[in-house]
Specification:
Elements lengths: L2 E7 L2 H15 L4 E7 L10 H6 L7 E2 L7 H18 L5 E5 L3 H12 L4 E4 L11 H12 L2 E4 L2 H9 L7 E3 L3 H8 L1 H7 L1 H4 L8 E4 L3 H4 L2 H15 L4 E4 L2 H9 L3 H5 L4 E4 L4 H9 L3 E4 L3 H9 L3 E4 L7 H4 L3 E4 L4 H9 L16 H13 L1
Parallel strand pairs: 1-2, 1-4, 2-3, 4-5, 5-6, 6-7, 8-9, 8-11, 9-10, 11-12, 12-13
Helix pairs in contact: 1-7, 1-18, 3-4, 4-5, 8-14
């Protein structure tokens, strides 16, 4: 009888992480793999179209949780997923990815029901417990049965927290698998051309962290700096729903929308977005995954955060932590050709899904 494996998908980056693994597992004759969509991202461009891009089927179960407070999301996911496991389908193995609320929630449900759980992308730490994602990482890694890490710093973080060596397995970065899975489609997409942008002569902006976009003062400074940057190089800004709402609430939407060289677009699904990233001169972001993708593609990444849970992108890659006060000097470094070239970390090779598949089979048999 085939083993049943559940993959939990919640936020946009999770979709990219489960896709290569879904396709790898779906080729196996010893398992059935089912996707559980928790519904955290309810915008169509941030969910449905990305599933289509990634050639994923309709989720086998959809929890439909939507937005809400951290407590609401975590509790609602626990209740809904437990109901599936107890009443509809009990998996033999659960894979959770990333650091969103459903990652921790589903891990707790499965662990309490004695279902083996693996955390893909384990061991990442920013050291900043003000970030809800950091709490989710700590909770998830504390209770999962096996911890699949993307990099040596993640291994070391887990060792420092007392996790036994037997639970730590470095498998590499599965986000690179997603890119390679869709490389031909990404290259055929020609997003820069569609948006009237010159290849290699524009910047991509993504901003959504509460510390950057929720309060008027910080958001106004960001808007002002983006306007200044757009005078040096055209920008395309994929506006997250949270950021759009804040810009409108604080009366800043019209200010930024009126700038000719700063193009505002809806959240873009994976293939067209990576087409934009691949041909960009620079990226300005506060997101997590794009720090890794830019390192893989050797593109300058200016991360507007105090810290990162992906320090290898700084130490080995093309990422640099910046703040609003030094953003312009770092933009100038890129435009003057003075940004350092990075290297691809070990096992960021597009073959992580195969390693994970072998780990799951070894665990189950």
């Amino acid at each position: 009888m085939k083993k049943i494996i559940h993959l939990i998908a919640a936020a946009r980056p999770n979709f990219m992480k489960i896709a290569p693994l879904y396709h790898a597992l779906n080729k196996q004759d010893w398992c059935e793999v089912h996707i559980i969509h928790t519904g955290q991202h309810y915008d169509a461009n941030m969910s449905d179209s990305i599933f289509a891009d990634l050639m994923l089927p309709e989720p086998h179960f959809h929890l439909g949780i939507g937005s809400g407070s951290h407590a609401h999301q975590t509790g609602s996911v626990m209740i809904a997923y437990e109901k599936i496991v107890l009443e509809k389908e009990r998996p033999d193995f659960l894979v959770v990815v990333g650091d969103v609320n459903p990652t921790a929630a589903c891990s707790m449900v499965a662990t309490k029901l004695h279902i083996p759980v693996a955390h893909l992308e384990a061991g990442l730490r920013s050291g900043d417990r003000r970030m809800p994602e950091e709490i989710n990482r700590l909770v998830t890694d504390a209770i999962c049965d096996t911890l699949w890490t993307p990099s040596p710093d993640a291994d070391e973080n887990l060792r420092n927290e007392g996790h036994p060596e037997s639970r730590i397995v470095r498998v590499g970065n599965i986000m690179m698998d997603s890119f390679e899975l869709l490389r031909d489609k990404i290259e055929a997409e020609k997003s820069p051309e569609k948006y009237g942008l010159e290849i290699g002569n524009y910047g991509v902006v993504t901003l959504h962290r509460p510390s950057n976009v929720d309060e008027y003062d910080s958001l106004k400074k960001l808007v002002d700096q983006l306007i200044i940057t757009s005078e040096k190089i055209p920008l395309i800004f994929a506006v997250h729903p949270r950021t759009r709402n804040s810009l409108q609430t604080h009366g800043l939407w019209d200010d930024i929308q009126s700038i000719d060289r700063l193009k505002l677009v809806e959240p873009v699904s994976y293939t067209p977005f990576m087409s934009l990233v691949k041909s960009a001169k620079l990226i300005i972001t506060d997101s997590g995954g794009i720090q890794e993708e830019t390192t893989y593609l050797n593109i300058p990444c200016l991360t507007l955060r105090e810290n990162t849970e992906r320090p290898i992108t700084v130490s080995e890659g093309t990422n640099k932590l910046v703040d609003i006060d030094n953003l312009q000097e770092n933009v100038d470094l890129v435009l003057e050709g003075k940004w350092r070239s990075g290297t691809k970390p070990d096992l960021w090779d597009g073959k992580t899904a195969g390693r994970v598949t072998r780990e799951i089979k070894h665990w189950l048999f």
